[in-house]
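Quick one, tokens below. Sequence please?
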């Protein structure tokens, strides 16, 4: 068994140098990363056992006695470059080949794995409190990076890794063999497990984040069907994140603990609200930790680590989105960052807070830590919920290809409003035209005096629609369209407030998401706004309209001036 000191020594080896040499020897092979792992394994075996011959591929298999799965992996990876590989046998030491097999994550563009960052694995291992004798399950183990980090902390525990990709499972199995100890890698789908299968003291799951329900396969679809019969909220989901969470938690034994990696959006979006309610009502959500963006080498989506256990009366919300060493292409969670996150998980700090079920329910089961850590604003005078004076809908969610088919180069009565068409709070006078409009899209067309608010991308844009008789303006899906009850509120007053310093701060407090800030419709409805009398509103609205009119005049003058500037040279030549 590799001890902790040996593992850290191997971690310090320059694996990129070894990988580069093998990559050069395998140049032209279809899957270079796969070849690097296969070649390092073959060369390591030949160096450690003098009875194993690498004079030819056939001699190797005759003397090495590999399993059928490993033999197939090596043959497919090294066909056509065996002679080049053989020449590298004495160029590097056994330790250097071991280091590559344990720590090399590939070139980053292989497309068949998104390895869990080492820092995330170390954080999860610490939170799971793995001790000798515990049984640990790693779901979606990939190349076994999480188990490797756990083995460094608790080598005397028992580990099982589940992986559905054969090549990744082979690499994970090779890593397990080098690490030694009680480690099993199974080529198995999580959804193959039934309720009577072994349960574990600790479970970690880094499943394919953001996968749609149709990508789960027949076993996953059957699980969703059965789950939706027992639990409201799983029949219609935006992604499979909460289904994976439930299935992973099925594997946790009594007082055990489970950790899942998931997309930030699934912690707050509207469509997954009932699934979150289900988990909260079971009392199994112990912690929610927002991690920094860009920590995965091959995945840009912002992620959340969610911790499950039994009997939780409160949930610790931790916003660790800024705890990293920021890089140009990737961010790295350092060991010092991990210590601060662990401290925030154990007690309330400036980035963490223990939140009750009632408070979470009040926020529509929003599990984004930012929603509970933003400082409360000043009391709102004459405050009412925005949803009491407006009805909120979302624009038409059309794909770019569908819009391209509808687009027209000529002026028609149909136009299209996108986020880019709102500048300085004013909708462009020249909007793109559409040839025609399907009847089912008519409901997404703007009405005069509709209040428009961008759904994502702070600072949020606000505008009031001015729609002429016979004009049809289709709103984009990135926009919220609000029909204002004008017996209670003036659209331009609402616009003036939402764009003000206090209004912007209020919107920020209900914003979720770090990479792309988003506004949820339920939170927007509950946003408290000051609502004075209509007379007071009109005074503010009239002044705001006057500013809009003035700005439109300035924009027209600016356009004319810019046009004149672009023709100064040509006009002087003509003169």
């Amino acid at each position: 068994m590799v001890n902790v000191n040996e593992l850290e020594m191997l971690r310090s080896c320059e694996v990129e140098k070894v990988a580069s040499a093998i990559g050069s020897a395998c140049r032209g092979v279809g899957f270079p990363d796969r070849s690097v792992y296969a070649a390092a394994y073959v060369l390591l075996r030949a160096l450690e056992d003098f009875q194993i011959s690498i004079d030819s591929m056939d001699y190797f298999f005759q003397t090495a006695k590999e399993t059928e799965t490993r033999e197939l992996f090596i043959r497919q990876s090294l066909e056509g470059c065996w002679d080049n590989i053989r020449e590298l046998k004495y160029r590097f030491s056994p330790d250097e080949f071991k280091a590559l097999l344990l720590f090399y994550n590939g070139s980053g563009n292989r497309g068949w794995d998104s390895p869990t960052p080492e820092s995330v694995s170390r954080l999860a291992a610490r939170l799971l409190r793995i001790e000798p004798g515990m049984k640990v399950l790693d779901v979606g183990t990939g190349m076994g990076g999480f188990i490797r980090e756990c083995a460094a902390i608790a080598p005397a525990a028992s580990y099982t890794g589940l992986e559905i990709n054969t090549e990744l499972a082979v690499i994970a199995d090779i890593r397990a063999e080098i690490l030694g100890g009680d480690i099993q890698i199974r080529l198995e789908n999580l959804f193959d497990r039934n309720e009577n299968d072994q349960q574990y003291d600790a479970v970690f799951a880094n499943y394919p984040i953001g996968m749609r329900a149709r990508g789960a396969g027949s076993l996953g679809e059957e699980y969703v069907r059965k789950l939706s019969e027992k639990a409201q909220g799983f029949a219609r989901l935006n992604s499979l994140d909460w289904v994976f969470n439930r299935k992973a938690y099925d594997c946790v034994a009594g007082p055990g603990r489970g950790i899942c990696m998931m997309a930030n959006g699934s912690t707050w979006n509207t469509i997954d609200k009932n699934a979150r309610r289900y988990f909260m009502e079971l009392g199994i959500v112990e912690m929610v930790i927002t991690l920094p963006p860009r920590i995965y080498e091959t995945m840009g989506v912002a992620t959340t680590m969610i911790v499950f256990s039994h009997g939780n009366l409160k949930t610790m919300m931790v916003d660790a989105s800024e705890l990293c060493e920021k890089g140009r292409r990737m961010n790295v969670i350092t060991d010092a960052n991990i210590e601060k996150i662990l401290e925030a998980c154990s007690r309330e700090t400036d980035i963490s807070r223990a939140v009750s079920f009632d408070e979470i329910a009040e926020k529509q089961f929003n599990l984004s830590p930012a929603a509970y850590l933003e400082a409360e604003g000043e009391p709102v005078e004459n405050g009412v919920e925005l949803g009491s004076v407006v009805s909120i809908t979302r624009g038409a969610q059309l794909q770019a290809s569908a819009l391209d088919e509808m687009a027209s180069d000529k002026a028609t009565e149909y136009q299209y409003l996108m986020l880019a068409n709102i500048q300085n709070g004013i909708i462009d006078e020249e909007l793109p035209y559409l040839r025609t409009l399907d009847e089912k899209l008519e409901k997404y067309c703007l009405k005069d005096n509709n209040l428009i608010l961008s759904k994502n991308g702070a600072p949020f844009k606000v505008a009031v629609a001015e729609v002429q008789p016979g004009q049809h303006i289709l709103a984009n899906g990135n926009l919220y369209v609000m029909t204002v009850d004008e017996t209670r509120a003036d659209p331009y007053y609402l616009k003036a407030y939402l764009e003000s310093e206090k209004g912007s701060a209020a919107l920020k407090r209900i914003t979720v998401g770090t990479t792309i800030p988003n506004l949820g419709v339920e939170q927007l409805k509950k946003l408290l706004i000051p609502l004075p009398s209509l007379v007071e509103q009109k005074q503010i609205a009239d002044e705001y309209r006057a500013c809009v009119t003035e700005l439109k005049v300035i924009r027209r003058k600016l356009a004319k001036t810019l046009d004149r500037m672009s023709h100064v040279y040509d006009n002087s030549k003509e003169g």
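The two ends are 89 Å apart (CA to CA). The chain has three domains: 4-103, 118-373, 383-553.
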